[in-house]
Amino acid sequence: MADIEKLTMFQAIGVALDDAMAADDKVLVLGEDVADKQGGGVMGVTKGLSAKYGDHRVRSTPIAEQAITGAAIGAALAGYKPVAEIMLMNFVTVAMDMLVNHAAKLRFMSGGQTSVPIVVRTVTGSGFSLGGQHSDHLEAWFAHVGGIKVIAPSNPADAYGLMLSAIDEPDPVLFVENLIIGTSGAAAIGPRNVRIPIGKASVPREGTDVTVVAYSRMVVEALSAAATLEKEGISVEVVDLRTVSPWDHETVIASVAKTRRALVVQEAPREFGVGAEVAAEINEVLFRDLRAPVARLGGAKCPVPFSSPLEQAFAPNPARIADVIRALVDKEFR
Amino acid sequence: MEANFPRPDAQTLLEIYRKATLIRRNDDRAHKVIRSGRMVMPFYSTKGQEIIPSALSVSLNADDYICTIYRGIHDSLAKGLSLKKLWAELGGRVTGSCKGKGGPMHITDPSIGIMVTTGIVGSTMPIANGLAWASKLSGNKRVTIANFGDGASNIGAFHEALNLASLWKLPVIFMCQNNRFAEHTTFADCTAVDKVSTRASSYSMPGYTIDGNDPDEMYGTARIAIERARAGEGPTLIEAMTYRHNGHVFGDDGHYMDAEERAAAIAADPLPKLRARLIYDGIASEDEIKAIEDGFERELDEAINEALASPYPALEEMKRDIFAHEIG
Is residue B162 part of a domain? Predict the structure, then answer.
């Protein structure tokens, strides 16, 4: 096991799985290549788990996302707590029926008689030269569905604590990891076995002029922009949603009530995204207090391009975030 | 059927008839209730397919699992679903098996192993694998039945699920009820093989095509598959040939069904045959059988009247059962 003092996000998630499996023998791991014989998953997150807990609890599967997700759902109906790895987020589209029609709905449609406590881990993100079918952030698709929770952490400590909570959760959770920040920014994970509650945002940077609401990699980009703007005398508060659905209205509204300006940033295409929901809510609650319209930044509405200059222009970056914030601060309604 | 497969004894045959009759009477009654306007629901008739779950479920334990589909009320009744829970659910009442929140396509009763009823063609199979995986992990010897139709053997989930079940040697039975129609399209018009069971060989599991309307064949084949699963030897694909007497859904007259073939299938209805056999073999008298049938009619009257007199779920139910904790 890696040095516990400083872990990447992927390593932190591996430690969380290890701790959860040690604590509860109902916790299972399944997915393509997840056992040690196949390398412990595409990003090595589950490395070491099959050696420690056995191939019956850490099960490599065929490339068959419906079968993987279905097996997780069925085992969950029978009292297990499976953590399924779907190698990349675009492959989740192959299992949409299992996730949306079944995992998310069985509790409701059965009148509360059955439940599906699964975690579906998946990873994605532009900037890895993987092109149009291996890079999409599809969390908004799932945030739109009742019955499934969506988590997208931005750092190792949050990923560790949220994974433990996701496994505890009596309902399905989609756990979205990001390729770029999964291996960068190693950090301490805090005390072992301490959970971070689902649905609670954090404020990794306090400020007074503008609030940036983000999640996953965009938190890192926003923090970078905030550091630049500090030198220009602009004080930026960053809210990390951590959980995309259900998202933390209270923390976001409290922050924007203070700063009276907001920018919402996501890597997924801007239209119909998570940011639109957050912006709409801010407008509904704080319209009269805002000093500028809520701004949104998101990815381009095109498949993630392969060619490097195009891919780099796809998602928001610190420079673009900083530009929007400067424009926001210039605006005064009244 | 293979000659050495077990055959049902007298009491088992009577039990098969009892279950099949309950299913038939229930189906006929549903048509009447919908026509009368007393309840509104999408209804997928199982008329003609009664013997399959009846002859299978007599070999199941209460804690064995089934997953079934929108055309699956017969499977649930054969597994032991109460008429009261069923009818209250069909009526969308809070006293229904799912508090009225699922309806006819999502009947669930885990207390008797009815784990999933899905409205999505093909989706029982991947989930049944998971239930079977859980049984294998815990060593509890339960088996899981994945019911589906012939149409579902053409969807990807079937192939993914059979491969995984065979690879992991799961205690699951893939119960294909070949009623000759995928909605309005005949089996031959949408399937590249003559028999669904031939697909079993692609996944290294036994596959049988049998007369699903024959209680002996259905019982014997199901028994063998269930014993194989319980013994940890892996899955079986059973293709039980049957015929859907009615159209796809209530209101569909089945105009696309070959009239002669349909008439022949209805004339070969297995229920009167089994009834006559029970009497001929001295397993039950005409009076005893009549008493069973009349008993179901009374139970249906009671279940339907009770359902209609029951309250609808409160609007707060829209916030409940989405998650374990009520949403705001």
Answer: yes
